[in-house]
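Study this pair:
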Amino acid sequence: MNIVLFHSTYGLRPAVRAAADRLRAAGHQVWTPDLFDGRTFGTVEEGMAHQEVVGRDELLKRAVLAAAPYSERGLVYAGFSLGASVAQTLALGDDKARGLLLLHGTSDIAENAATDDLPVQLHVAEPDPFETDDWLSAWYLRMGRVGADVEIYRYAGAGHLYTDPDLDDYDAEAAETTWRTALGFLDTL
């Protein structure tokens, strides 16, 4: 499978590269675009401040340009938190998308979004301050209305970015379960 994996608001850090290596070891071809031009951040606040300076439109433009050379192959879009938001936006706009793997995040859904049974898998902490229960319920219903086939996995007690071993949010058991489930999902596409 061809996968484009987008980083979180922390930037393209070692955990993202390790995740890409894990996917490659399972036989997938993976690209990890750097939407922050080499900048990484030690806190969410620093990353969000940088994200605001760059702007959402510019981040999406960078993501589209990074994915474009591979989109004809039929990509699986994937990402962590902010990167999941970007991946979702791109996948819903790409009629050749093969799947969408969301880790720790979702995004608003464009009014004109439509897809034909796009397989989607979301992994998110429970509770998660960025992905509240009300938001996730509404998101799930909207994704169904636009034609996505969605599975949601919640991880009680895990921190927001629980798959990143370099952060306080890390939860080894939840992370391993997430990767095992995600790899199974990718094998079905």
Q: What stands out?
A: Strands lie at 2-6, 29-31, 75-80, 99-103, 118-126, 148-156. Helices lie at 14-25, 44-54, 56-71, 82-92, 133-145, 172-187. The chain has a mean pLDDT of 96. The first strand starts at residue 2 and ends at 6.
